[in-house]
Fold these 2 entries.
Entry 1:
Amino acid sequence: MSSFSAELRAGAADVWEAQHSHPFVRGIGDGTLALDRFRHYVRQDYVYLVDYGRLLALACARAPELETMRRFAELTQAILVTEMDLHRSFAADWGVPAADLESERATPTTRAYGDFLLRTAALGDFAELVAALLPCMWGYAEVGERLAAAGPPEPDPARPYARWIATYADPEFQALAAWCRELMDRLGAACDDAGRARLRAVFAESSRHELAFWDAAWRLEPAARDQRSLG
Ligand SMILES: Cc1ncc(CN)c(N)n1
């Protein structure tokens, strides 16, 4: 019998395959992505990760057991420190201070994804919160793993995509994503059919936001005019 997370993944398979074949993802993999698109992505992803960090902190607060709280506290740290250090290091290489990343204004796509995550955390139950956060961890683990397996591009200071791939293919990141899947499996098993249908819908919606995020970076989507930075 397949796991509940595998069932969620199968239900959103078309969206996940569209991510793998998106020109932005392919361009990271073969090293051909134009740097302006990658820089746009890094700036917006920094804004996104601030909201994602908030989501993980809310998951920590709402977790039903101490061990799950502890794991979410670790995961929050991994995102706000380790993953965001990657973005800060790219920015530093481009002469952009971290303060500039923090004052970046969200595009409509970044804002929509962050709003969806935080709305789900505020109004959904704990299992829905986990279904919302899963495509982020699992999707990047899968992209990193596939691109690393295909043979990453040669290290190139002008196009630092090999470093990006190595971060998400790293066994530590893979293990964090695997823990999120196992948690989803346990929560899915404890739900009734109606609850599992809600989790499928949340996971599918979150997966669509992931695809839209690649696409917004590819299109160099401009920031929404009325956005505040960091919130
Ligand atoms: C949009 C997005 N999704 C997922 C990840 C991986 N944490 C990320 N950095 N950005």
Entry 2:
Amino acid sequence: MAQNFDSLKQACRDQWQAYIQHPFVAGVSEATLPAAAFRHYLQQDYLFLVHFARAWGLAVYKSRDMSELRHSLDNLKTIVDTEMDLHVDYCRAWGIDQEELQNLPEAQETLAYTRFVLDCGHRGELLDLHVALAPCLIGYAEIADWISTRSQTVSVDNPYQAWIDMYRDEEYQQAAHREHLWLDERLAELSPQRFAQLTTTFRDATRLEAAFWQMGLDAAR
Ligand SMILES: Cc1ncc(CN)c(N)n1
């Protein structure tokens, strides 16, 4: 049977679930997450987005034809022109201004995750980089879906509603869908050995996403 993106998720089922349904995400959904946890997450996520934009820039650089290049460029634009602007506006609403964001010290979890992804890109091929980036782009679209289907989700007066809406937004969901299809096409052709190698990358990136949520929770203790 041909492998696809769902095969990657299946191979890392426990780690994927621990990321998508992390207590931080449940707290956002139920409006019970401590504000200090979310604030710390927002600050570090600004730094994260800067490095992830660089990683998509690296994917543009590593592309072999115009179709690959345009695909990575679209993802770079989603971060720089849409997600980052919304993020900065959102931080401002939480009383965090641009100057504060630019002068933040980088947390270990941010360093570990972002440099891991950049290293996958430098060391490997374009596909290694896309697989390392997938938990970020596709994972948040799935998280927004998970939140919207939960009966426990609070949708009236939830202080995190604007953040949830950012990832439920059609443009973000479509970018995640395009990446899903892009990966499905490339994963189908691989040898079992190559698929196993990419599974390790995907699992590690997923673990680093869960650690990023945990960093937010720990900041509120
Ligand atoms: C840590 C993290 N992972 C993913 C995303 C969604 N692009 C994000 N903003 N931050």
